[in-house]
């Protein structure tokens, strides 16, 4: 039968248990506003009963506290982490879309393309009225230089955005490495505690908070599995293996983690790319491809912004190969006005990449690329008829897309303008030259853009970009060199060249940009960026709202409710007081038994 003093054991178990419950409740209240904290709860069960050897059989032995557990629903965690990657992607895209939009000023707040373009043609109208007046000529030349400077400044702005996105990619990779290292350390600490029989609630909260941060940068797949004893599979070890994967590749595996690194590209993909754009690799050398539908998060948005070409990178098909010369047909960039690839770089033929040292555009959709190595007979046989491309097809309007649009407009407009201008004579009766030109970025000298053959090195309009367009120095210094008539012998008031130049603004049969006139250029670009900005804003808002809903669901499960904890305080206090009362009653009973009973 049970000991006479067994009641004290029962009462003591109640005191101990409800002291633990009160401590846990106090800890919850102390962390009511702590970010990432999950509500904790003591898990209790009735202690094992003992045989009393009486007709009533068993006697209860009190209460036991099994553990202090955090209250957390993994379903809501996984849902939150999945959604955070979307929030991170569209928040970042929205931010950079706004940055791009700021450079394409719509003239409502300050002077932009439309105002400068209108002012240039207003000045050209004055030339039309007084073609021999050097002051009027000079005003037009200055306004044309302002147009060139506008494109220079926008190009510089696009370059800065690309540079900023590139640097942020490096920062995000450093964040990923730092977080993965911290999580691996926490995994070890958690297992040390839980193998000994405890529950590492606070450490688990820290780990979940780190995953919250990580999931906004890259999409994560989380798996936590119990570690079994190889000698006894039914034995509970208390240890778990916590694994984080990115697109099927392991980032963290228990106590171990894999590092990422950024490596600057040796070659540019697009003509206007900055030097040293980063690609991300695992330390084992495998490259991470962020241009997949499975990828999202902040780093995906940064790559799309930095490299997005609206799925319009250079492409063609291999028709033949002779030594190190690859012949391509059916290429999508047929003229020097649309070419956007770098002068030298890497071309992918089939599934293999080769470095090219130059190319020739034959003007009919066919190209010749000079590789820095001869292909073997097996490589040639495999390559014939296969697709060839430079860079990846990225279905997003990022910096390369907007730069190609700027360059196309600049080349198309200036080439037509120069052809008309150079067909006339200056005021002295000499054949006029080009009005617009491009400056060599290294030498700073003006280029003669009338090369008969379009190659990677010849001075065709491929060499002109929004970043280097300018008015010829000779015209800036001497406005009499400007052409206003085909033949000045017809008189100083002849303006047939000016008349033709005037049509470039509104006559799309002379020059067009995406089916519209040249003055519509800004509206087309603004419509592009407005679509991207609005789409990013809409998705950012939607996924943020989903995130808030999931957070509310998480809080409903894991959050600390002040009213609920206050009720628990009273409940556990009463239980503790009652256990104390039991001790008091038993004390009085034992006093009567020991001191007042007997012979």
TrEMBL record:
GO MF term set: structural molecule activity
The keyword Transmembrane helix appears for this protein: no
Annotated ranges, domain Flagellar hook-associated protein FlgK helical: 98-310
The keyword Secreted is annotated on this UniProt entry: yes
Domain Flagellar basal-body/hook protein C-terminal, first and last residues per copy: 553-594
Primary location class: other
InterPro entries noted in UniProt: Flag_bb_rod_N, Flg_bb/hook_C_dom, FlgK, FlgK_helical
An example Gene Ontology biological process: bacterial-type flagellum assembly
Cellular component, GO, one term: extracellular region
Location of this chain's protein in the cell: Bacterial flagellum; Secreted
Keywords, in A-Z order: Bacterial flagellum, Cell projection, Cilium, Flagellum, Secreted
Ranges where the Flagellar basal body rod protein N-terminal domain occurs: 9-37
One Pfam family recorded for the sequence: Flg_bbr_C
PANTHER family: FLAGELLAR HOOK-ASSOCIATED PROTEIN 1
Similarity section: Belongs to the flagella basal body rod proteins family.
Protein name according to UniProt: Flagellar hook-associated protein 1
Organism name: Anaerosacchariphilus polymeriproducens
